[in-house]
């Protein structure tokens, strides 16, 4: 039986490619969606953020306390999102939880965050692949300075656990 969530090559169709070309880190994780799923990509972003595991929020709280010591911003926690707003109500530039909405189509949403040490972009791409509907989350990070490189050295191992764990909850919380 195939893994529920697995690492994949960056999708060819993502609009994130220009950013990835300048990135210092990127990865992609994929989940097969139920065959009947008809929701836009924004639905999955909102659902993933709103259903983040408590341990991820605890790690974010710890992260926020630690980075304030070096002057970085407190991002809050992943699950701090209003689920009352419909996916179609979001406009470019709106905050979507801890991220800012950069682009949105029914099949792909790109969100991100900028700080003095790095830029983050995350794509949620929903597409047909091998006759299955799949959702691929691609994260890309561009470091601006030594602080960004240091930050990513600490964050990367956690990211590689958090990204698939939060993606997996999309199916487990249905």
TrEMBL record:
InterPro entries: DUF2867
Top-level taxon of origin: Bacteria
Name assigned to this protein: DUF2867 domain-containing protein
UniProt source species: Leeia speluncae
């Amino acid at each position: 039986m195939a893994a529920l969530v697995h690492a994949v090559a960056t999708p060819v169709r993502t609009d994130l490619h220009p950013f990835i070309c300048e990135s210092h880190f990127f990865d992609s994780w994929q989940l097969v969606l139920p065959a009947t799923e008809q929701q836009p990509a924004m639905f999955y972003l909102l659902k993933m953020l709103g259903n983040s595991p408590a341990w991820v929020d605890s790690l974010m709280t710890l992260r926020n306390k630690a980075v304030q010591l070096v002057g970085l911003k407190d991002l809050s926690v992943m699950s701090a999102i209003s689920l009352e707003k419909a996916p179609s109500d979001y406009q470019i530039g709106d905050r979507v939880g801890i991220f800012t909405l950069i682009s949105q189509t029914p099949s792909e949403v790109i969100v991100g965050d900028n700080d003095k040490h790095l830029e983050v972009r995350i794509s949620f791409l929903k597409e047909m692949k091998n006759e299955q509907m799949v959702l691929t989350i691609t994260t890309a990070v561009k470091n601006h300075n030594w602080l960004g490189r240091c930050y990513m050295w600490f964050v990367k191992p956690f990211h590689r656990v958090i990204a698939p764990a939060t993606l997996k909850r999309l199916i487990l919380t249905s």
